[in-house]
């Protein structure tokens, strides 16, 4: 009796590999047809010969397998009738030998590629007697994909093999119910064969992969394809397991040893027939890319710990030392990848080692060693090209990155700073790191600088936040964290889309627009601007940093609101906003050095709703009142006090129509309904009607 050979599974390639491109003259893509399957109980199939049952298909199929309840049959063999009318030879079918770590192997055979067929005959025995009652045939139509006619055109290079992606080979992602899971790193490559017919043509390879995907995801109940990647006899590489070929994605290709291994399966059966040179070359290139860029010697060895399940040779918890490129049979009770396939492993290791090159000389690898492999953690994503001509690798379950560019060197980004770097777009926003993580001079924070005039600063209280471009320049000019404090937001766009800003711990912010540049607003002035609505207020964006007034008593920022705007502050008055026509009048009178002094209110609406005003702290008090009919005019001292005593603008005088001006023996202000005169001789003010 043929030794049991319970399966190989399919592989997945990574986000960093080259993908298949359509020919220049490609026609519009045909609409894809999703895979579908039917299940037929053998007990309902007629017996066509002693011990043989024939399953008539309701629809054409191209892949078939058997499932059962209870004890597995000892042997299963099948043959099929092609849609052209000819019958195949009888072929032994192996039990599915793989699955998730720690879980039993499914009660199924390996899927068998039949090509377009309409009849399946099955022989199954247990204990030398035919068995049919518990068996069912699964017949899969793999559907169609726009990439089917293009698959054989894929090519590869040693460092980055070309890959037919899941989307290109037509993976129906609605079948994928196994959320990707990740190991800490990849330590080894496991070689499989799919134990399928070798009679497929290369333009049928995508169909075969779709069929295996359906069988693994649905029939086996795995929720996805088991292998990380698959290679056909023409050397075409197919992405298998979802989750990223550049990452340590856990598959279901070698039960008990799926974690930290990358499963590559050759499409076909290689028990007596050796894999094609094209297949072996593609497997070697894929192995070299995965292991070499993951700083693992393809000719070395590694120690793995069995997690049990499947048909693992080793109980859970057993440490096993293996070559870094090994066959499925080394860890499972299986013939996989076939005697002829297994015999190629020494040559495969040698070729992969040659293709991997001198990966130890990689500046990223050398930096990893320099910072401490234990500190950075194991390789998570393989080393890959980065935008801008450099290289990078992710370590420690994606928690840190070392990036290198020839003009900058290699630097390490980690921890919370790395989290912000990744979340905000990584190199596309920040560029390359130009420092390792450093401590701030005050000992409170940590930071990395980056090549795109960018930094990320971290403290335990603020977390890690990015600051870039002109805002970073302004923050640096103000003394970094010793000036405005640490950033407590990432750089953000303003709601109107015109500006950018960061907030800082020192009750401060920097706002930038193309017209105003980057300006700092802080303290009480910032609080007032915030209360008025930030840049959506009448003040709009700051056009200056906070400055000291000439008399040294106050502080101010100017803004670019319509007609201009400012916020002025003194310890005695607090911070108040003044803008538009009222600000223009105050400016004409000499700002805070004029008779009005500093504002003591923001601009306010008069009780009648017609006008607007600010009060000031000049000697005897001062105000500027504005209405559409009168414009803005200043009133202060005794005249202002007398106008106030009569009821301000609600009195018979109404709004002022002039600033205070000199007359014989005194001062005068004009109003809509009359005027007020102040006498030097009496020290009193008197109101008169026109």
UniProtKB/TrEMBL annotation:
InterPro entries: Amidase/PGRP_sf, Amidase_domain, LGFP, PGRP, PGRP_domain_met/bac. Keywords: Signal. Gene3D superfamilies: Peptidoglycan recognition protein-like (3.40.80.10). Coiled coil: none annotated. GO terms for molecular function: N-acetylmuramoyl-L-alanine amidase activity; zinc ion binding. This is LGFP repeat-containing protein. It comes from Amycolatopsis methanolica 239. The lineage of its organism: Bacteria, Bacillati, Actinomycetota, Actinomycetes, Pseudonocardiales. The keyword Signal applies.
